[in-house]
From TrEMBL:
InterPro entries: CobQ/CobB/MinD/ParA_Nub-bd_dom, DNA_Partitioning_ATPase, P-loop_NTPase. Pfam families: CbiA. Transmembrane segments: none annotated. Residues 4-174 form the CobQ/CobB/MinD/ParA nucleotide binding domain. This is ParA family protein.
């Protein structure tokens, strides 16, 4: 089981969006057994499933049109201090676990969750506030990475643009993080309206869903590129797929 945290101490930077895009595609289209753990106090992902997705599932079930399973991946709400106790109980049931954590990094529980992950994905932005928050957070991850190497543990972290717009500031951010030796994924998500309509039911690689949210063909290409790069960089090899 690979554990992937999606984290940044700056709120509103695209953590939940990145998780729904990756989890939906890896589960529905790549065949991984995926669990999403919502450990963020805001409970964004759990709220999306309960408020937006579950009612439509119940309507389809009543109409006899529901195709099981209703959701491509499992989703659980777990407190920060209980995350790894819960994962120990179900470690044989999943190939990939995504953990959505709060937008802060100044408490022990947060450090423990980050340190126990195999991969941390850090959504990055281009504004001054986003840049400063992201750089300081990734420097914390550099220290966790150093300690993990000393203990022979599997730990990696990557910055990823979850709403790239090709602004000059973004290119400056890339050059700056590269100069600091902070790793990043080459694949990214564009700032498209279709990603603002979160759903935990569908994959953006599903043509019917892309049409429903007004996504064009470029969305399929960038989601697939992001999944493929994550699979390669995080070691999600074919042998993990059930």
């Amino acid at each position: 089981m690979k554990i992937i945290c999606v984290a940044n101490q700056k709120g509103g930077i695209g953590k939940s969006t990145l998780i729904t895009v990756l989890a939906g595609a890896l589960a529905a289209d790549y065949g991984y057994r995926v669990l999403v753990v919502d450990a963020d106090s805001q409970q964004t992902l759990a709220g999306v499933r309960l408020t937006n997705d579950q009612p439509s599932v119940e309507l389809e079930r009543e109409a006899g049109t529901l195709t099981e399973p209703a959701f491509p991946y499992a989703l659980e709400s777990v407190g920060m201090s209980q995350v790894y106790d819960r994962l120990d109980e179900i470690s044989d049931d999943y190939d990939v676990v995504f953990i959505d954590v709060p937008g802060r990094s100044d408490d022990t529980a947060m450090i423990d969750v980050l340190s126990g992950a195999n991969v941390v994905l850090v959504p990055v932005g281009a504004s001054d506030a986003e840049r400063l928050a992201t750089i300081s957070f990734m420097q914390l991850l550099q220290e966790i990475s150093r300690l993990s190497r000393e203990q022979g543990l599997d730990f990696q972290f990557f910055g990823v643009h979850s709403h790239r717009t090709n602004l000059k500031e973004e290119k400056d951010m890339d050059e700056f993080t590269d100069a600091l030796g902070l790793p990043r994924l080459q694949a990214s998500l564009r700032q498209l309206g279709c990603y603002k309509r979160l759903s935990t039911r569908y994959s953006y690689l599903n043509p019917a869903y892309r049409r429903a949210v007004g996504a064009d063909a470029s969305v399929e290409a960038e989601v697939r590129a992001l999944c493929d790069e994550l699979i390669a960089r995080a070691g999600l090899t074919a042998e993990l797929v059930s």
